[in-house]
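Extended Data, panel c. Modelled sequence:
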Amino acid sequence: MRMLFLILAMMLPTAVNAQMRDSVFKDYKAYNDFVDQKVTIRDFKPFILALGGRDEYSPDQLEKINKQLLNVFRKDFANKTVFRRVELGGGFSQEARAYWNGESYAYYYAILHQRKNDLVVINFSLNSDIGVIMAKF
């Protein structure tokens, strides 16, 4: 039986909170550590907010999405990998990651832009269906 798939895709917000620069990381390592840590322990609310959801969802909508994700992904992930990364030119790239445990797989996709002094997450998606993620390449 196919797992219910969820898609979360967000565009880079135009308004940036003065305290936190949504979707902007110091470098790839900071981005990588953040994404791996949040997805591995299923800490989806701060994950969504930091990657651009702060101005995309109301608190009620965010709570609903969090519950859906926790229902689909019932256990923390023990394994992770970046399984596809494509350089697009001009500092842009796209990547796909997988997170898994004995019960389920989560697939993550992002379009990134390496600027002079930081890395921006332009768009991202989290899904239980690998086909949805692979179709983005």
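Residues 1-20 have pLDDT under 50 and may be disordered. This feature is highlighted in the accompanying rendering.
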